[in-house]
Amino acid sequence: MTDISSDQSVARTPARHRSVPNMREYYVYFAVIFVATLPLSFLTWGLSAARRMELPEKGPIKAAWSQAQIITPRIFSA
């Protein structure tokens, strides 16, 4: 009688398909979104600085970076 439960050849086959997206693709999307949000971040930063007559707490690059950090995972989770 053959014991099928201890067949080691099935366990050794490599996974053909990864469920985790490629990190290079994530970084490309992140870079595109970051560059796309930079002009709007500079505009809103400049307008809020002019309106309040003081520099905002978060700079335009940090604001664009945080927007890219919010948007990119949402694209990959959809």
What does this protein structure show overall?
This protein is mainly α. It is built from three helices and no strands. The chain has one domain. Helix 2 packs antiparallel against helix 3. The model has no long low-confidence stretch (mean pLDDT 84).
DSSP helix fraction: 55-70%
The structural class is mainly alpha
Number of strands: 0
Task: Give the distance, in angstroms, between the N- and C-terminal Cα atoms.
Answer: 48 Å
Globular, elongated, flat, extended or rod-shaped: what is the shape?
rod-shaped
Strand content: under 5%
Oligomerization? single chain
Task: Average the pLDDT over all residues and give the rounded result.
Answer: 84
Counting DSSP H or I runs of 4 or more residues, the number of helices is: 3
Number of domains: 1
Spans of at least 5 consecutive residues with low confidence = none
Radius of gyration: 23 Å
In N-to-C order, the SSE pattern is: HHH
How would a textbook summarize the main sheet?
A: none
